[in-house]
Design a protein that fits this description.
This protein is an alpha+beta fold and about 290 residues long. About 50% of the residues lie in helices and about 15% in strands. The strands form three sheets. A five-stranded antiparallel β-sheet has the order 1-2-3-5-4, with helices on one face. A three-stranded antiparallel β-sheet has the order 6-8-9, covered by helices on one side.
Length: about 290
C-alpha cells in the first residue's frame, strides 16, 4: 500500500464516524503498519504477506477473536472494528504499559507470571482451525531457500511433532514476542495478548515455549516460569519437553524470517533469522560434543 497513513485516516473515520484529530505511526511488529489515533485507538493496516498467506487469513483471525472475546476475563484488547476481507483492524489502545523485555536483565518472574496467567485464560477459548506446524515448517523452509543441519533438524522436528500430538489442543496465540504482550501499569496483575494473526488450534505447550523462546528469557527464569505454568504437575520431563519445543521454534522462525526477508528485503527479518539460527547451531554443536 502506497499511503498507509492516508488509508488509516479514511478507514477510521468511515467505520467510527469520528474525525481524526491526531495520528502517529507507532513501532510494532515487522509485518504491518500501526497507528495511534486520537490517543485512544490503534489502527492496524495490513501489509502484503505471501509467506503466511495460506495460513494466516482474516477468516482465521476473526474466528480467534470471536472465541477469545467470549471467555471470562479475556486477555485480548477490545476490538472496535475488524475488516474481515482485508484484515485491517481498530482496537482500543491499552495505555501506560511497561515492556516485558527491555533487556534480559530486566525481565522479572512476576511479569512472566502475569503473561502465563493470561495464556491460561486465553487457552480456555474454543480452538479454531489448525496451526499446522509441520506444513508451516516445510512451507517456510522452501520459501526461505535456506537449510539447517539436516539430520539434527529432522530430529528436532520429529521430537516437536510428537510433543504437539500428545498435548491438549487449545486456542493458542502462537506469536508471543514482547510486542504482542502488554502489561498495563494500572492493572498490576493483568497482561493483554494482542495481534491474533497467528492464533489457531495448537498444543497448549506451544505458547509457553513461544513466550520463553521469542523473548530470550534467561535459563533460570525459564525454569521458574515452567514451574509456575505446571504447578503441582511440574517435573523434569516437562522442562525437557518445553526445551525441545523452544529449539523447534528457533528452526521454524528462522525459516519464516528468512522467507519474509526474501519477500520484503527488510533487515529486521534478517536480524531475527540470524538470532534464531545462531541459537539453533549452538544446540547442534553441543549435541555433537556430547
Amino acid at each position: 500500500m502506497k499511503d498507509p497513513l492516508g488509508f488509516a485516516i479514511r478507514y477510521f473515520e468511515r467505520t467510527s464516524h469520528t474525525k481524526v484529530s491526531s495520528i502517529r505511526e507507532i513501532e510494532g511488529g515487522t509485518g504491518n503498519n500501526l497507528f495511534l489515533v486520537n490517543w485512544d485507538y490503534i489502527v492496524r493496516v495490513k501489509r502484503k504477506n505471501d509467506v503466511d498467506g495460506e495460513f494466516n487469513t482474516p477468516n482465521t483471525e476473526v474466528a480467534a477473536i470471536s472465541f477469545a472475546q467470549k471467555i471470562p476475563f479475556s486477555p485480548i484488547a477490545p476490538i472496535c472494528h475488524y475488516d474481515s476481507v482485508n484484515g485491517n483492524k481498530i482496537e482500543t489502545a491499552i495505555k501506560d504499559v511497561e515492556p516485558l523485555v527491555s533487556d534480559n536483565e530486566h525481565v522479572t518472574l512476576a511479569n512472566l507470571k502475569r503473561v502465563i496467567d493470561a495464556i491460561k485464560i486465553f487457552h480456555q477459548a474454543q480452538p479454531v482451525y489448525s496451526f499446522s506446524a509441520e506444513h508451516r515448517f516445510y512451507s517456510y523452509k522452501k520459501k526461505s531457500g535456506e537449510a539447517l543441519p539436516a539430520g539434527y533438524e529432522k530430529k528436532v522436528l520429529r521430537d516437536a511433532l510428537r510433543i504437539i500430538e500428545s498435548e491438549d489442543l487449545v486456542l493458542s496465540h502462537n506469536d508471543l514476542w514482547a510486542g504482542n504482550i502488554l502489561l498495563p501499569s494500572s492493572e498490576p496483575s493483568k497482561a493483554y495478548l494482542i495481534d491474533l494473526e497467528f492464533a489457531s488450534g495448537n498444543a497448549d505447550i506451544f505458547d509457553l515455549a513461544s513466550l520463553l523462546e521469542e523473548n530470550e528469557i534467561p535459563e533460570n527464569l525459564c525454569l521458574e516460569a515452567i514451574r509456575y505454568y505446571y504447578g503441582l504437575n511440574f517435573d523434569e520431563e516437562k522442562v525437557e519437553r518445553v526445551k525441545k519445543m523452544m529449539l523447534f521454534l528457533d528452526a521454524l522462525w528462522f525459516y519464516w524470517a528468512m522467507a519474509r526477508y526474501k519477500e520484503t528485503g527488510k533487515e529486521a527479518f534478517r536480524s531475527i533469522a540470524k538470532t534464531k539460527k545462531e541459537r539453533f547451531l549452538r544446540s547442534f554443536k553441543k549435541s555433537i560434543s556430547d
